[in-house]
């Protein structure tokens, strides 16, 4: 079943979505129902499909089509002004895309919902920028040009200030909620950020190592033990940094193991990156745990072994992709 959604003419917010991969596309599509949205991305094939046929979002056996403006040309945005810029690019691309967009970001609230550590700090380098950070528990998968799948829906996203007033983030949170994406502004987002970070730093690289087969993460005793070792190491590092957790980082894993939540086929974004030869966020996730563990004198041997193995996988996947 397919239905089509049109962007209303009376947009309340002007939102630039920076990075239209799986999650960026999901947010851009849904937000286009309640705001004036522009998607910025380097994948011209994906953008051409959106321009031609709209963005198709598959979820729960249905498909919806969303239409909004997209571009890969920063010069085409010259003179445009946005109320908010939502950063969804891979962590390693944050600094480059900031430089590329330049004055287009002036005056906008910059919000990162990216995986990994260091993105908010990179956004803070934009002179005078109002910066927020947060996490989303929604999940999606890129299916091909112009189409993504909404895998996990109905979860709350949390936004909070880094260098911005909380009330400046409220309009964006309200836009999310109006678009059917639960969102809440909280005074200190770091507890939520640390919780989501640890989950990703453990589960994403393990998902890549098992070749994207989610059953291996839950049904192989040795892999379960590896996950538990990495979680313990990451917890120790974060606590040594003075971090706390807003929720149990491994709570979802425990629910799947107990049978409270069914096992899905989704094995994390890093497995998908490896499969298509794309750069991963291993440096900003598990690499952060390893570097900080070494700096603080916290043992991180399980995390180090996984980090090293994924670096090898990333190299091999990149070589395969370039040869094809």
Automatic annotation (TrEMBL):
Mind telling me which SUPFAM superfamilies this protein's record contains?
Answer: 6-phosphogluconate dehydrogenase C-terminal domain-like, NAD(P)-binding Rossmann-fold domains
Q: Which GO terms describe its cellular component?
A: cytoplasm
Give the top-rank taxon of the lineage listed in the UniProt record for this protein. Bacteria
The answer to whether UniProt assigns keyword Oxidoreductase to this entry is yes
The EC number(s) attached to this protein equal 1.1.1.169
**Residue spans crossing the bilayer:** none
User: Which reaction(s) does its UniProt entry say it catalyses?
Assistant: (R)-pantoate + NADP(+) = 2-dehydropantoate + NADPH + H(+)
Entry's Gene Ontology molecular function annotations: 2-dehydropantoate 2-reductase activity
Q: Which InterPro entries does the UniProt record give?
A: 6-PGluconate_DH-like_C_sf (IPR008927), 6PGD_dom2 (IPR013328), ApbA (IPR003710), KPA_reductase (IPR013752), KPR-Related (IPR051402), KPR_N (IPR013332), NAD(P)-bd_dom_sf (IPR036291)
- One Pfam family assigned to this protein is ApbA_C
Q: Which GO terms describe its biological process?
A: pantothenate biosynthetic process
Could you list this entry's UniProt keywords, alphabetically sorted: NADP, Oxidoreductase, Pantothenate biosynthesis
Q: Does the keyword NADP apply?
A: yes
Q: Which residues form the Ketopantoate reductase C-terminal domain?
A: 190-314
Ranges for domain Ketopantoate reductase N-terminal come to: 15-161
Please give the pathway this protein is involved in.
Cofactor biosynthesis; (R)-pantothenate biosynthesis; (R)-pantoate from 3-methyl-2-oxobutanoate: step 2/2
**What job does the chain carry out?**
Catalyzes the NADPH-dependent reduction of ketopantoate into pantoic acid.
Family as reported in the entry's similarity comment: Belongs to the ketopantoate reductase family.
Q: What is this protein called?
A: 2-dehydropantoate 2-reductase
Q: Please name the taxonomic classification of the source.
A: Bacteria, Pseudomonadati, Pseudomonadota, Alphaproteobacteria, Rhodobacterales
